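#struct-help
A.M.: can someone run this one for me? Single chain, 519 residues.
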Amino acid sequence: MTRRGTRCGVVGTLALAVLFASCGHRAPDPTAGYLIVGIGAAPNGFDPRLASDEGSERVAQLVYSRLMELDDSLRTVPGLAERLDRPDPLTWVVTLREGIRFHDGHLLTSADVLYTFRTILDPATASPLRGAYRAVRQIEAPDARTVRFVLTEPVESFPMQLVVAIVPEGAGTGLRTHPIGTGPYRFGSARADDRIVLDRFEGYFRGPARNPGIVLRVLPDDTMRGLELQHGGVDVVINDVPPDLVHALDGRPGLHVVTAPGTDYAYIGINTRDPLLSDARVRRALALAVNRQAIVTHLRRSLAGVATGLLPPTSWAAAADLPRFDYDPEAARRALDAAGYRDPDGEGPAVRFQLTLRISTNEFARLQATVLQEDFRAIGVGLDVRQYEFATLFADVVKGNFQLVTLQWVGGAVADPDILRRVFHSDQMPPGGFNRGRYANPEVDRLLDAATRASGEEARRRLYQEVQRRVAEDQPYISLWYRTNAAVLRDGVTGLTLGTVIDFERLARVSRPAAPIVY
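D.P.: on it. Structure tokens below:
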């Protein structure tokens, strides 16, 4: 914009008013009218092939589109694919929709899909998604709209492995800082640990978003997110307002809350290679010490349900008869005694042993850790709680540099029971998989391999349910709770619906008042 020089003379009150009006002029805000969304953590990067944190996944949902998608019943449906066919047990064929364009203007073709999957499979990429494709023998693109996946063995859950964001052919490492996708928003700008600006992509294949763009404001402090909602600095926060604050804000003038049952799963991850924690008897005793119901009722204000395993109760493969380790501190003390870890002074201050729990800087994580400290102290176990910025915490977990950690599986990650293989099979340890606790059980491996090859939903269900029983007995994870999805919105923000799985792509259907928001 060209600025013209202004000669301001003062001739009475009217001239003074003109002076202030002309000299105080500012360039219009390019994000005026954008939907302002508060998030608790900045993304680690913008390349969806490398995304394994919630912040990165949320940006990916807005900027990229996936080959296949999840519907509200947690079934796979076509996304960029027009259809998915299976001509024989080892072959899956994707036919792409016509006319879809990337933000840089080039037409989506099978070459982009081929490039996306080949780079995921390349060990040099160090993609955490790579472990999902160990059965892929060949990927072919016979024409511009067709991609053929040939497997080494039948994999009934393979459509779930196609719920993957597609990147442009040849994009390389540039996507880490400047994403280019086919989603409802194109990348505008980013300020580290502050905000990400995304502009509406008019060429989105499902039609342009109902808002001109989105600003993702990074607000790590829970209280600050609540204040920004009240003062109008943020339009909406989804699953990033702690339950106490949701309760306090619900019904406040200018705000309203939307909820829906969710699948996000919170747990204590255990490093099973740690000398103390390699003993399943110790892990089971720790599980018996945790008062999950108290956490759900008091800390989460009942915006959650007590969890018994990784798969949510809504999953078609969830086992209802898992070994349970309900709150029983006396049983926990007896179990530790039997394992050889007696309390040296009974009810006195000395502990059986000391453990370290790593958590993020999130306030709810701190409060929950305080409860866990008390639960463990009641059975004679000391718990040293250490807080880290999420990027540091996650990097340590991937390296196996932890004893205990509180984390969550979010979104559609737990929608398909194949997540059990990704998390608990011994060949899925980082960087190619999600077995960050280094859990290994040959019988669990055998059952997971059989479930991967099994034909028919009932056969897969039986095998996956047996896996869940054995994993529950071993307790490499201590299950905590399943989240109830909750969004706090400014009045006038319309069109937001929450499904079982939180997908930020839904924000493309949201509109907000035209009045500018100052922040």
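A.M.: thanks! The CA atoms of residues 323 and 472 lie 6 Å apart.
D.P.: also worth noting: The first helix runs from residue 12 to 23.
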